[in-house]
User: What shape does this take?
Amino acid sequence: MHSATRGRGGRLATLVPVKADWIEHRRAGDRELLGWMQPVDDGFVVIDLLGRPRTEALDWMRAEEVLEELGIGYLAELYELRLDDGWLRVRVAEVSPSQIRVKKDDWGAVGAPQIYYTLPFPVPEGSLRPLSRTGQPD
Assistant: This one.
């Protein structure tokens, strides 16, 4: 298995668990985890399932609305993973509060090798970016 958790100099990145003050938000119907709300000053910053802040501080109700609107559909989108020699087109395969696994996009080829990369949670800034519909990064 390939690993994208090595930083500069070959050191392994340390996994950072969900912070103790993050408040889970689950979808009402099926109780699917949508993300977290991190208390900041008098508001809450929305944190997605990749561990990325998605808003500035909002009031409780607006933070919940943002998580509901965000949903989990963004996990099914195409992404690009930064490797030492450039960017690789990937799909998110697994997300948990301990790690994120992405899979090299194989364009749906049944016999293609399954190549996975593991990233720490939260996903390090600059290591994973959405691929726009035009094929260029957002």
Observations:
- Residues 19-73 form one domain.
- The first helix runs from residue 60 to 70.
